[in-house]
Amino acid sequence: MATATAQTLQRAKALPLDPLADAIAHVEGLPEAAPNAVPALERIEDTKTKELVIVNWSGDLDKVWPVLILSSTAAASGLRCRVFVTFWGLLPFVKDQKRIVGENWMQKMLTLMQRPGIDHLKLSKMNFLGMGPWMMGVLRKKYGVASPRELLEAATAMGVEFIPCQMTMDMFGLKRADLIDEMGEPAGAATAIEIMTEADASLFI
Amino acid sequence: MAIQVIARVDARGLSCPMPIVKTAQAIKSIASGALVEVLATDPGSQKDFAAWSRTTGHELVEQTVDGGVFRFVLRRK
To answer: Theoretical Cys-Cys bridge with B59: which of A83, A152, B28, B75, CB 3.0 to 4.6 Å?
Structure first.
Protein backbone atom coordinates (compact mmCIF):
# COMPACT_ATOMS: atom_id res chain seq x y z
CA MET A 1 0.00 0.00 0.00
CA ALA A 2 2.97 2.25 0.77
CA THR A 3 4.29 1.74 -2.78
CA ALA A 4 0.90 2.56 -4.25
CA THR A 5 0.75 5.79 -2.28
CA ALA A 6 4.27 6.71 -3.41
CA GLN A 7 3.23 6.12 -7.02
CA THR A 8 0.13 8.21 -6.54
CA LEU A 9 2.19 11.03 -5.12
CA GLN A 10 4.63 10.74 -8.00
CA ARG A 11 1.77 10.95 -10.48
CA ALA A 12 0.34 13.90 -8.63
CA LYS A 13 3.71 15.64 -8.71
CA ALA A 14 3.88 15.16 -12.47
CA LEU A 15 0.87 17.46 -12.75
CA PRO A 16 2.12 20.68 -11.17
CA LEU A 17 -0.57 22.73 -12.92
CA ASP A 18 -3.34 20.90 -11.08
CA PRO A 19 -3.67 22.80 -7.77
CA LEU A 20 -5.48 19.90 -6.08
CA ALA A 21 -2.85 17.36 -7.04
CA ASP A 22 -0.12 19.83 -6.12
CA ALA A 23 -1.67 20.40 -2.69
CA ILE A 24 -2.07 16.68 -2.03
CA ALA A 25 1.53 16.04 -3.09
CA HIS A 26 2.74 18.45 -0.43
CA VAL A 27 0.65 17.13 2.43
CA GLU A 28 2.38 14.53 4.52
CA GLY A 29 0.73 11.81 6.57
CA LEU A 30 -2.48 12.13 4.61
CA PRO A 31 -4.99 9.29 5.03
CA GLU A 32 -4.71 6.78 2.20
CA ALA A 33 -8.23 7.36 0.91
CA ALA A 34 -7.56 10.97 -0.03
CA PRO A 35 -4.73 10.58 -2.59
CA ASN A 36 -6.76 7.86 -4.30
CA ALA A 37 -9.28 10.52 -5.24
CA VAL A 38 -6.83 11.98 -7.76
CA PRO A 39 -6.44 8.94 -10.02
CA ALA A 40 -10.21 8.43 -9.81
CA LEU A 41 -10.74 11.87 -11.35
CA GLU A 42 -8.16 11.11 -14.02
CA ARG A 43 -9.92 7.88 -14.85
CA ILE A 44 -13.19 9.66 -15.55
CA GLU A 45 -11.47 11.95 -18.04
CA ASP A 46 -9.61 9.05 -19.64
CA THR A 47 -12.68 6.96 -20.29
CA LYS A 48 -14.83 9.69 -21.80
CA THR A 49 -14.74 9.07 -25.54
CA LYS A 50 -14.64 12.24 -27.60
CA GLU A 51 -17.37 12.62 -30.18
CA LEU A 52 -17.55 14.25 -33.58
CA VAL A 53 -20.79 14.81 -35.47
CA ILE A 54 -20.82 15.88 -39.10
CA VAL A 55 -23.88 16.89 -41.09
CA ASN A 56 -23.29 15.80 -44.67
CA TRP A 57 -25.64 18.02 -46.60
CA SER A 58 -24.01 18.17 -50.02
CA GLY A 59 -23.63 15.53 -52.70
CA ASP A 60 -20.70 17.38 -54.27
CA LEU A 61 -17.36 15.61 -54.59
CA ASP A 62 -15.51 18.49 -52.93
CA LYS A 63 -17.81 18.32 -49.88
CA VAL A 64 -18.36 14.57 -49.49
CA TRP A 65 -14.62 13.97 -49.79
CA PRO A 66 -13.64 16.03 -46.73
CA VAL A 67 -16.60 14.54 -44.81
CA LEU A 68 -15.18 11.06 -45.47
CA ILE A 69 -11.59 12.13 -44.72
CA LEU A 70 -12.55 13.71 -41.40
CA SER A 71 -14.95 10.97 -40.32
CA SER A 72 -12.50 8.14 -41.09
CA THR A 73 -9.68 10.03 -39.35
CA ALA A 74 -11.91 10.69 -36.34
CA ALA A 75 -12.68 6.98 -36.05
CA ALA A 76 -8.97 6.21 -36.51
CA SER A 77 -8.23 8.62 -33.66
CA GLY A 78 -10.53 6.74 -31.31
CA LEU A 79 -13.44 9.18 -31.47
CA ARG A 80 -17.05 8.17 -31.82
CA CYS A 81 -18.08 9.69 -35.14
CA ARG A 82 -21.60 10.05 -36.44
CA VAL A 83 -22.55 11.55 -39.80
CA PHE A 84 -26.09 12.80 -40.32
CA VAL A 85 -26.74 12.45 -44.03
CA THR A 86 -29.32 14.79 -45.49
CA PHE A 87 -30.60 16.37 -48.71
CA TRP A 88 -28.21 16.08 -51.68
CA GLY A 89 -25.80 14.40 -49.32
CA LEU A 90 -27.94 11.26 -49.35
CA LEU A 91 -27.47 10.44 -53.05
CA PRO A 92 -23.81 9.30 -52.76
CA PHE A 93 -25.02 6.70 -50.24
CA VAL A 94 -27.37 5.00 -52.70
CA LYS A 95 -26.29 1.45 -53.62
CA ASP A 96 -24.06 1.04 -56.70
CA GLN A 97 -26.55 -1.04 -58.68
CA LYS A 98 -29.31 1.58 -58.34
CA ARG A 99 -29.43 4.04 -61.22
CA ILE A 100 -32.83 5.73 -61.11
CA VAL A 101 -34.51 5.81 -57.72
CA GLY A 102 -37.75 7.38 -56.53
CA GLU A 103 -41.43 6.61 -56.84
CA ASN A 104 -42.85 9.36 -59.04
CA TRP A 105 -41.51 11.02 -62.19
CA MET A 106 -40.19 14.09 -60.36
CA GLN A 107 -38.17 12.00 -57.90
CA LYS A 108 -36.88 9.88 -60.79
CA MET A 109 -35.88 13.06 -62.67
CA LEU A 110 -33.68 14.05 -59.70
CA THR A 111 -31.53 10.95 -59.97
CA LEU A 112 -31.62 11.08 -63.76
CA MET A 113 -29.95 14.50 -63.58
CA GLN A 114 -27.75 13.69 -60.58
CA ARG A 115 -26.55 10.10 -60.82
CA PRO A 116 -26.50 8.56 -57.33
CA GLY A 117 -23.66 6.47 -55.87
CA ILE A 118 -20.27 7.13 -54.34
CA ASP A 119 -18.46 6.94 -57.72
CA HIS A 120 -20.54 9.61 -59.45
CA LEU A 121 -19.92 12.77 -57.49
CA LYS A 122 -19.78 16.13 -59.25
CA LEU A 123 -17.68 19.13 -58.34
CA SER A 124 -19.46 22.15 -56.88
CA LYS A 125 -17.45 24.34 -59.22
CA MET A 126 -15.54 23.68 -62.44
CA ASN A 127 -17.52 20.51 -63.10
CA PHE A 128 -17.43 21.19 -66.89
CA LEU A 129 -19.72 18.26 -67.78
CA GLY A 130 -17.56 15.83 -65.85
CA MET A 131 -14.18 17.11 -67.06
CA GLY A 132 -13.41 18.54 -63.58
CA PRO A 133 -14.11 15.32 -61.64
CA TRP A 134 -12.16 13.34 -64.27
CA MET A 135 -9.10 15.57 -63.83
CA MET A 136 -9.55 15.33 -60.06
CA GLY A 137 -9.49 11.54 -60.40
CA VAL A 138 -6.24 11.65 -62.40
CA LEU A 139 -4.62 13.97 -59.84
CA ARG A 140 -5.94 11.83 -56.99
CA LYS A 141 -4.21 8.72 -58.36
CA LYS A 142 -1.01 10.62 -59.16
CA TYR A 143 -0.74 11.86 -55.57
CA GLY A 144 -1.89 8.71 -53.80
CA VAL A 145 -5.07 10.23 -52.39
CA ALA A 146 -7.75 7.74 -51.37
CA SER A 147 -10.99 7.85 -53.38
CA PRO A 148 -14.35 8.58 -51.74
CA ARG A 149 -15.17 4.87 -52.15
CA GLU A 150 -11.98 3.75 -50.37
CA LEU A 151 -12.57 6.28 -47.58
CA LEU A 152 -16.21 5.24 -47.19
CA GLU A 153 -15.10 1.60 -46.85
CA ALA A 154 -12.46 2.56 -44.27
CA ALA A 155 -14.94 4.75 -42.38
CA THR A 156 -17.64 2.11 -42.13
CA ALA A 157 -15.06 -0.58 -41.25
CA MET A 158 -13.83 1.57 -38.37
CA GLY A 159 -17.33 2.17 -37.04
CA VAL A 160 -18.35 5.61 -38.35
CA GLU A 161 -22.13 5.73 -38.07
CA PHE A 162 -24.01 7.20 -41.02
CA ILE A 163 -27.58 8.26 -40.19
CA PRO A 164 -29.89 8.96 -43.14
CA CYS A 165 -32.43 11.76 -42.87
CA GLN A 166 -35.95 10.30 -42.95
CA MET A 167 -37.50 13.47 -44.37
CA THR A 168 -35.08 13.54 -47.32
CA MET A 169 -35.70 9.86 -47.97
CA ASP A 170 -39.45 10.51 -48.14
CA MET A 171 -39.08 13.56 -50.37
CA PHE A 172 -36.65 11.85 -52.76
CA GLY A 173 -38.67 8.61 -52.69
CA LEU A 174 -35.70 6.66 -51.30
CA LYS A 175 -36.31 3.41 -49.45
CA ARG A 176 -33.98 1.96 -46.83
CA ALA A 177 -33.12 -0.80 -49.33
CA ASP A 178 -31.96 1.83 -51.87
CA LEU A 179 -29.22 2.94 -49.47
CA ILE A 180 -25.98 1.08 -48.71
CA ASP A 181 -26.31 -1.60 -46.04
CA GLU A 182 -23.80 0.15 -43.73
CA MET A 183 -26.23 3.04 -43.27
CA GLY A 184 -27.87 3.27 -39.83
CA GLU A 185 -31.53 3.68 -38.98
CA PRO A 186 -33.19 6.79 -40.49
CA ALA A 187 -33.78 9.68 -38.09
CA GLY A 188 -34.90 13.31 -38.06
CA ALA A 189 -33.76 16.81 -37.18
CA ALA A 190 -34.31 16.32 -33.44
CA THR A 191 -31.86 13.41 -33.46
CA ALA A 192 -29.37 15.56 -35.37
CA ILE A 193 -29.72 18.35 -32.80
CA GLU A 194 -29.37 15.92 -29.90
CA ILE A 195 -26.18 14.28 -31.17
CA MET A 196 -24.70 17.64 -32.23
CA THR A 197 -25.24 19.22 -28.83
CA GLU A 198 -23.80 16.17 -27.06
CA ALA A 199 -20.73 15.98 -29.30
CA ASP A 200 -17.37 17.65 -28.61
CA ALA A 201 -17.40 19.10 -32.11
CA SER A 202 -19.98 19.26 -34.86
CA LEU A 203 -19.63 20.31 -38.46
CA PHE A 204 -22.07 21.15 -41.24
CA ILE A 205 -20.38 20.41 -44.56
CA MET B 1 18.90 -2.56 -27.27
CA ALA B 2 17.12 -3.15 -30.56
CA ILE B 3 13.45 -2.27 -30.41
CA GLN B 4 10.98 -5.06 -30.97
CA VAL B 5 8.57 -4.02 -33.68
CA ILE B 6 5.49 -6.25 -33.89
CA ALA B 7 3.64 -4.72 -36.85
CA ARG B 8 4.66 -2.69 -39.89
CA VAL B 9 2.62 -0.29 -41.99
CA ASP B 10 3.92 0.69 -45.41
CA ALA B 11 2.10 3.91 -46.23
CA ARG B 12 4.67 5.15 -48.74
CA GLY B 13 3.00 6.91 -51.67
CA LEU B 14 -0.25 7.32 -49.75
CA SER B 15 -1.68 10.70 -48.95
CA CYS B 16 -3.62 12.01 -45.96
CA PRO B 17 -5.49 10.45 -44.18
CA MET B 18 -4.53 6.91 -45.25
CA PRO B 19 -1.21 6.62 -43.32
CA ILE B 20 -3.17 7.34 -40.11
CA VAL B 21 -6.15 5.17 -41.07
CA LYS B 22 -3.89 2.20 -41.91
CA THR B 23 -1.89 2.67 -38.71
CA ALA B 24 -5.09 2.81 -36.65
CA GLN B 25 -6.19 -0.48 -38.19
CA ALA B 26 -2.77 -2.10 -37.65
CA ILE B 27 -2.41 -0.99 -34.04
CA LYS B 28 -5.69 -2.74 -33.17
CA SER B 29 -4.09 -6.08 -34.06
CA ILE B 30 -1.20 -5.78 -31.59
CA ALA B 31 -1.13 -6.04 -27.82
CA SER B 32 -0.99 -3.08 -25.48
CA GLY B 33 2.64 -1.98 -25.09
CA ALA B 34 3.70 -3.51 -28.44
CA LEU B 35 5.28 -1.41 -31.17
CA VAL B 36 4.22 -0.62 -34.70
CA GLU B 37 6.52 0.87 -37.33
CA VAL B 38 5.12 3.14 -40.04
CA LEU B 39 6.81 4.29 -43.24
CA ALA B 40 5.28 7.25 -45.04
CA THR B 41 6.20 9.77 -47.72
CA ASP B 42 3.44 12.30 -47.02
CA PRO B 43 5.23 15.34 -45.51
CA GLY B 44 2.05 16.17 -43.56
CA SER B 45 2.43 12.91 -41.65
CA GLN B 46 5.17 14.47 -39.50
CA LYS B 47 2.69 16.73 -37.75
CA ASP B 48 -0.19 14.29 -38.10
CA PHE B 49 1.40 11.36 -36.27
CA ALA B 50 2.34 13.63 -33.37
CA ALA B 51 -1.27 14.91 -33.21
CA TRP B 52 -2.69 11.40 -33.56
CA SER B 53 -0.44 10.21 -30.74
CA ARG B 54 -1.77 12.99 -28.48
CA THR B 55 -5.40 12.27 -29.39
CA THR B 56 -5.24 8.50 -29.00
CA GLY B 57 -2.64 8.16 -26.25
CA HIS B 58 -0.49 5.77 -28.32
CA GLU B 59 3.06 6.90 -27.60
CA LEU B 60 5.19 8.16 -30.49
CA VAL B 61 8.45 6.45 -29.54
CA GLU B 62 10.57 7.35 -32.53
CA GLN B 63 10.36 9.70 -35.46
CA THR B 64 13.09 9.74 -38.11
CA VAL B 65 13.47 10.80 -41.72
CA ASP B 66 15.63 9.17 -44.35
CA GLY B 67 15.70 10.42 -47.94
CA GLY B 68 12.10 11.63 -48.03
CA VAL B 69 10.77 8.60 -46.15
CA PHE B 70 9.36 9.33 -42.72
CA ARG B 71 9.54 6.55 -40.15
CA PHE B 72 7.42 6.47 -37.03
CA VAL B 73 7.44 3.96 -34.20
CA LEU B 74 4.39 3.95 -31.98
CA ARG B 75 3.60 2.03 -28.82
CA ARG B 76 0.04 0.85 -28.36
CA LYS B 77 -1.64 2.34 -25.30
So the answer is: B75
> Which residues, at least 6 apart from A106, have a Cβ–Cβ distance to it below 8 Å?
none
Express each pLDDT in B17-67 by its tens digit: 999 999 999 999 999 999 999 999 999 999 999 999 999 999 999 999 999
CB atoms within 10 A of CB A150: 16
Q: Verify whether residue B16 is a known catalytic residue.
A: yes
Domain B5-75 in CATH 3.50.50.60: no
Cα–Cα distance for residue pair A15/A24, rounded to 1 Å: 11
pTM for this prediction: 0.80
**A77's torsion region: left (phi>0), alpha (psi -120 to 50) or beta?**
alpha
B3, B13, B16, B25: which one is catalytic? Answer: B16
Inter-chain touch B15–A77, beta carbons under 8 Å: no
Contact between chains at A77 and B24 (C-beta distance less than 8 A): yes
